[in-house]
Amino acid sequence: VIRPEPCGVCGSRIRFGKTAIKCCQCQLLLHTKCREQCPSLCVPRPHHHAWPREGVLADFAPSTPPLVPALVVQCVTEVETRGLTETGLYRVPGAEQLVREWKRKLLRAGGALPALSSVTDIHVVCGVLKDFLRGLKEPLVTFSLHPAFLRAADIPDDAASDTALRHVVSKLPPANRDTLAFLMLHLLRVSQSPDCKMDVLNLSRVFGPTLVGHSSANPTPLAIMEDTPRQCKVVARLLSLPPSFWRGFVGTEQENLVPV
């Protein structure tokens, strides 16, 4: 395993460097120890095992702008309310079982989300947000625009790179664009908190694979290795854009971004 993914049988994450079993027909991925519990035939997976691959971002977005899923708004609001004094925000992992439980709870709740204030460890809330974004069918920057984001970030001249990135961001589907803007403003606030000790470089390393990902659902091992440093570069460049640019997408309807 190069890119950590959840086991299709037990749901726990299969970590980097571990050996796993993958079905060449239905792409089911599982721990070697979970092989005995695996269904013998390729069948549609039960709903409670399918939570990491729930849909594209637009499937979760509200009908009125800004088109940011309630789960994202609620997690970010909770993190900003009580997490900006925590060292290693988004880098320190939350308890895996609690992250899975809360993500499942939030996804099943639909619109009326349970309060995250009862989650004692703020790192669990961070984990839910990262896991939700990581579990989408395609990354926030989308498969089709992935190469354009990489090319824009690779432009040596900062001003030209910024212009190219603004152009590519504007091409994103509305829900992806609004959510990206909302997250960038949030991550900028995290980077500016001296207590978090999470500067732009640290945050780009954490969120590069999550937000940028790859240009297909099943990248080759070579593509994964080549993409990783460029993913971080894209997020670092996006975080270098002025907050006013991002507020242009979510600022005017900010009052709608209130957790349910």
From TrEMBL:
PROSITE patterns assigned to the protein according to its UniProt record, in alphabetical order: RHOGAP (PS50238), ZF_DAG_PE_2 (PS50081)
Keywords carried by this UniProt record: Metal-binding, Zinc
GO biological process entries: mitotic cytokinesis; mitotic spindle midzone assembly; Rho protein signal transduction
Gene Ontology annotations for the cellular component aspect, listed alphabetically: centralspindlin complex; cleavage furrow; midbody; nucleus; spindle midzone
Database matches in SMART domains: RhoGAP (SM00324)
Highest taxon of the lineage: Eukaryota
The keyword Nucleotide-binding appears for this protein: no
Domain Phorbol-ester/DAG-type: 1-42
Domain (Rho-GAP) ranges: 55-246
Record protein name field: RGAP1 protein
Organism: Myiagra hebetior
Underlying gene: Racgap1_0
